[in-house]
TrEMBL record:
GO terms for cellular component: ATP-binding cassette (ABC) transporter complex. One of its GO terms (molecular function) is transmembrane transporter activity. This is Amino acid ABC transporter permease. Signal peptide: none annotated. Residues 66-268 form the ABC transmembrane type-1 domain. NCBIfam families: HEQRo_perm_3TM. One of its GO terms (biological process) is amino acid transport. It comes from Corynebacterium tapiri. The keyword Transmembrane helix applies. Pfam families: BPD_transp_1 (PF00528).
């Protein structure tokens, strides 16, 4: 029998025919038609007040209020992320005292509505004017009369309770072998968390944190409960009250919210891609080349080649 006869024939290429789904295209076309009809009707509806919308969309007061909203969002998220990380580490600590400190905080701030918390922060100045430490008295008037910082503090502490659970889930996703390897290298518990666990947990923590950031931006509209009205929603409603036109100013606020959240979503996408490096199953061309070189230089490959030459 010849060598050509013993050589197996290459299988024929599979000709895959994609399955057709006409119902999907029909349903999509119906949705597009209804969407166009809605927008066409909205553009012709005088109740939306499109001239007022165009007039106040880039108004200086609205733009300044958008900056205030962004500032509250960023500062509150910084407080939430830092304090939430500390609370998550304390909750997972082997020390029962540290665990008992974190649990009541999470219970209170996750168990009460954020609007109720903001109302309480607004009334805090009527409850406390100063704190007596025994050896000194700390005046709280400067802090408790600033609605901006009360808004930042109220939203930040509420966010910390949720960020603690997000960070805890990210830490729990790290394999136990990583912790054991760190202990074998002589690392303590705090160093293991800082050097080994938290960097690997970021891949799990980043996506929900991005969602929390976008949610925080929208939650800033509730700080009118303090009351703080210099943010985007409060300022828009002030202008609407003077014009007796709430609808176009609500559209102005919604447009700014959509614009800011769109930018944040793009940033979240690239941040997720950054922390997903090394976790993807698809090998790059450089990784494939390195793998091919390693297989060519492996002892198994050398032995196989030698046996082939001897044959």
């Amino acid at each position: 029998m010849t060598t050509a006869a013993m050589t197996p024939k290459a299988p024929k290429a599979i000709r895959a025919i994609p399955q057709r789904h006409p119902g999907r295209w029909i349903f999509a076309a119906v949705l597009v038609v209804f969407g166009l009809l809605f927008f066409y009707d909205a553009l012709r509806n005088d109740a939306y007040g499109w001239p007022i919308y165009r007039q106040y969309l880039f108004d200086a007061r609205v733009a300044t209020a958008a900056l205030h909203t962004l500032a509250i969002t960023i500062l509150a998220m910084i407080i939430g992320v830092v304090l939430g990380t500390i609370l998550a580490v304390l909750r997972m600590s082997p020390n029962p005292v540290l665990r008992s400190i974190s649990w009541p905080f999470l219970w209170v701030f996750r168990g009460t509505p954020v609007y109720v918390q903001l109302v309480f922060w607004g009334l805090l100045g009527a409850i406390y004017q100063s704190i007596n430490l025994g050896f000194a008295e700390v005046l709280l008037e400067a802090v408790l009369t600033s609605a901006f910082w009360l808004a930042v503090l109220g939203l930040g502490l509420n966010e910390a309770a949720y960020m603690a659970e997000i960070v805890r889930s990210g830490i729990s996703s790290v394999p136990e072998g990583q912790v054991e390897a760190s202990k074998a290298l002589g690392m303590g518990w705090w160093m293991t968390m800082r050097r080994t666990v938290l960097p690997q947990a970021m891949r799990i923590i980043i996506p929900p944190t991005g969602n929390q950031l976008i949610s925080m931006l929208k939650t800033t509209s509730l700080v009118v409960a303090i009351p703080y009205t210099h943010e985007l929603y409060g300022r828009s409603m002030d202008i609407a009250a003077s014009l007796f036109q709430p609808v176009p100013l609500l559209l102005v606020a919604a447009t700014w919210y959509l614009a800011i959240t769109s930018v944040l979503m793009v940033g979240q996408h690239y941040l997720e891609k950054y922390f997903e490096r090394g976790a993807t199953r698809t090998l790059t061309s450089r990784q494939l080349a390195a793998l091919a070189d390693a297989e060519a230089a492996s002892p198994h490959a050398s032995n196989t080649g030698q046996e082939h030459d001897n044959a």
